[in-house]
Design goal:
The chain is of the alpha+beta class. The chain has 2 helices and 4 strands; from the N terminus they run E-H-E-E-H-E. The longest helix is centred in the C-terminal third of the chain and has 12 residues.
Length: 78
């Protein structure tokens, strides 16, 4: 069963649109939405393991030009 998470993403300056386009193309990203509030984007992501989720967030999402901060919420099963 895949691990789902929502990643709140903060971008710098006018990088929101370009970061959104880049993030959309990353494997494991299911959807990206520009939003209002303290963060600029929210991404719905999925990974098979916590290690893959770690790589997705720490290396690939945070490596996108203009991304300054992320906050990840892992979806729990009830």
């Amino acid at each position: 069963m895949a691990i789902s998470a929502f990643v709140l993403i903060d971008t710098t300056g006018n990088h929101t649109k370009s970061a959104c386009k880049t993030i959309t193309r990353i494997q494991g990203v299911k959807a990206v939405y520009p939003v209002t509030g303290p963060f600029d984007l929210i991404a719905h992501v999925e990974a098979e393991t916590l290690e893959e989720l770690n790589d997705l967030v720490m290396a690939r999402l945070r490596g996108v030009d203009g991304v300054t901060k992320t906050n990840t919420a892992i979806v729990l099963n009830l």
